[in-house]
């Protein structure tokens, strides 16, 4: 499967560099998927019914080819090669819960680093919606031995997390180009509801804003985001403090300031 | 998709045409043969040197060094390899050297390539440090399943057998041989080291890697570096690393230390400069480590094992201010 996949991606790249149209518009059809996934047709129906979808190498998804830890697969998505990205959706074709997260970059770079749980080998894809309503899809295959979504969280088996639930630790890192990077971690078990006897329990919403209250980025997270989620967000210099507010599906609130 | 389906049978046909037809019976007999040949590195001290590779269906998991020491009354076995077949073939090779009974079978630590051959050896002789016994009890079956995935049919019939005999540090005579047990940790929560005083041979287990990148799934780097300091003080004339060739000088200690110090510093500096894990995975390996077998793969595995604690320390420190 891998050689075909690589070849298809390489072809797509060559096309987009050599030919005039940077994106290659294609009909939503399984045979056109550069990742050659048997699930692409279902993905298209589930997430993009009635919308225009293109495979676009400018939506970059970076993840290890082989997951060392199925519970914590590091992924970075970056759609900053496209202008006017309004929303980015991340999903994994072969996960029992398909959608991983969704974010609106608002003032931040349309890019996000995070970790996810993989139940088995799967494409991990990011779809970026531009102002014209078109969804641009990029992705990569991750090989995983699996079990990531049906395993209980560490937190669910330990009493300590309850005292630290929704605690935020984080830091703003100045970047050499004058921008800033925010890295933040929230204590949360992120239980999928698929491990026997452990109900679904996960962060649903996280909004970052600057000191004046202006929104920087809005993230919606779903069950497959890893336990104690950690996010990497790049943004223009936003001052010395960023406020992170949100809630989980049980209504528990997150509210913290992250500083330099 | 169509390219793959057309091309593959064509390739296979070409490959088959080039090969002489194998005799089926002979092929079956050699199919799962690890070809274990012990090397006598000192009088009575024998080592089976594994390949400097990762587990694969081609090598059947024969990537580890195991050994045995023949005393006047019995045999001490150090690690039993990755599978039942390996253990059986190892015991057969020992039998070609000596008829003396196996009196002590040690698992140096709880990683699968060091204990999954236990089935082949007398159950009452199986021994390990207490924390290693616990590790094999807790994780042994999961490791076994994972090796089935990685090494395939070589693993057939392999079951986890946990050692029942706890080992403690100290010097004693076993099988008529003057040995000393040193209990360390760092590669895993318990790492067993054996000194054979007559020959000055130190079996260092996986605290020592030689020309092969160290693995870190259960590592505590600070403890591991302390353990290497201790190893350097032992009365040794030769070292048997867990992976890589036997060596007569301490260069393997310096090499393992250098690599682990670089890993620790890379994790710390990456976390302090705010790198994401995917950026850590993309970092190049310095030239001086590129000669270590499996370094590209092991560095990336180590990022997944060790970077979370490093970044957590940085983020929590910032938050506490």
TrEMBL record, chain A:
Keywords: Signal. The keyword Transport does not apply. Residues 1-22 form the signal peptide. This is Quinoprotein dehydrogenase-associated SoxYZ-like carrier. Residues 45-149 form the Ig-like SoxY domain. Gene3D superfamilies: Immunoglobulins (2.60.40.10), SoxY domain (2.60.40.2470). Residues 180-254 form the Sulphur oxidation protein SoxZ domain. The lineage of its organism: Bacteria, Pseudomonadati, Pseudomonadota, Betaproteobacteria, Rhodocyclales. It comes from Aromatoleum toluvorans.
């Amino acid at each position: 499967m891998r050689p075909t996949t690589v070849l298809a991606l390489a072809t797509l790249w060559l096309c987009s560099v050599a030919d005039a149209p940077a994106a290659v518009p294609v009909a939503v059809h399984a045979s056109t998927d550069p990742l050659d996934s048997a699930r692409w047709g279902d993905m298209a129906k589930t997430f993009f019914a009635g919308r225009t979808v293109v495979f676009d190498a400018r939506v970059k998804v970076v993840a290890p080819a082989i997951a060392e830890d199925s519970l914590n697969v590091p992924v970075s998505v970056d759609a900053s090669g496209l202008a006017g990205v309004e929303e980015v959706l991340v999903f994994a074709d072969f996960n029992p819960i398909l959608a991983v997260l969704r974010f609106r970059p608002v003032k931040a770079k349309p890019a996000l680093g995070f970790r996810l749980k993989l139940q088995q080998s799967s494409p991990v894809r990011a779809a970026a919606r531009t102002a014209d309503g078109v969804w641009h899809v990029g992705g990569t295959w991750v090989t995983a031995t699996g079990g990531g979504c049906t395993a209980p969280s560490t937190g669910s088996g330990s009493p300590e997390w309850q005292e630290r639930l929704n605690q935020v630790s984080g830091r703003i890192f100045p970047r050499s180009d004058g921008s800033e990077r925010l890295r933040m971690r929230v204590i949360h078990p992120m239980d999928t509801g698929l491990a026997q006897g452990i109900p679904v329990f996960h962060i649903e919403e996280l909004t970052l804003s600057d000191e004046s209250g202006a929104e920087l980025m809005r993230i919606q997270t779903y069950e497959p985001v890893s336990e104690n989620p950690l996010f990497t967000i790049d943004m223009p210099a936003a001052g010395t403090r960023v406020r992170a507010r949100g809630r989980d599906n049980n209504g528990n609130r997150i509210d913290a300031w992250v500083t330099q | 998709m169509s390219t793959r389906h057309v091309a593959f049978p064509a390739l296979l046909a070409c490959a088959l045409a080039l090969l002489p037809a194998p005799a089926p019976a002979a092929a079956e007999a050699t199919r799962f043969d690890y070809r274990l040949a012990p090397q006598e590195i000192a009088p009575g001290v024998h080592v089976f040197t594994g390949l400097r590779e990762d587990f694969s269906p081609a090598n059947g998991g024969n990537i580890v060094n195991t050994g045995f020491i023949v005393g006047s009354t019995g045999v001490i076995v150090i690690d039993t390899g990755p599978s039942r077949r390996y253990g059986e073939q190892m015991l057969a090779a020992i039998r070609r050297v000596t008829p003396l009974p196996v009196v002590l079978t040690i698992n140096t630590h709880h990683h699968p390539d060091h204990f999954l051959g236990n089935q082949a050896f007398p159950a009452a002789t199986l021994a390990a440090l207490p924390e290693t016994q616990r590790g094999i009890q807790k994780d042994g079956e999961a490791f076994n399943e994972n090796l089935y995935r990685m090494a395939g049919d070589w693993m057939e019939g392999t079951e986890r057998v946990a050692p029942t005999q706890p080992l403690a540090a100290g010097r004693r005579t076993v099988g008529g041989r003057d040995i000393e047990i040193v209990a360390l940790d760092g590669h895993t929560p318990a790492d067993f080291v054996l000194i054979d005083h007559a020959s000055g041979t130190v079996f260092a287990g996986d605290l020592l890697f030689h020309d092969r990148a160290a693995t870190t799934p259960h590592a505590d780097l600070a403890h591991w570096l302390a353990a290497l300091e201790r190893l350097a003080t032992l009365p040794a004339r030769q070292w048997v690393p867990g992976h890589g060739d036997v060596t007569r000088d301490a260069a393997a200690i310096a090499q393992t230390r250098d690599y682990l110090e670089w890993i620790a510093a890379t994790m710390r500096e990456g976390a302090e400069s705010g790198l994401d894990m995917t950026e850590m995975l993309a970092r190049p390996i310095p030239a001086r480590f590129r000669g270590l077998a499996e370094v590209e793969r092991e560095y990336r595995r180590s990022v997944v094992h060790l970077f979370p604690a490093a970044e957590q320390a940085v983020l929590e420190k910032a938050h506490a201010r």
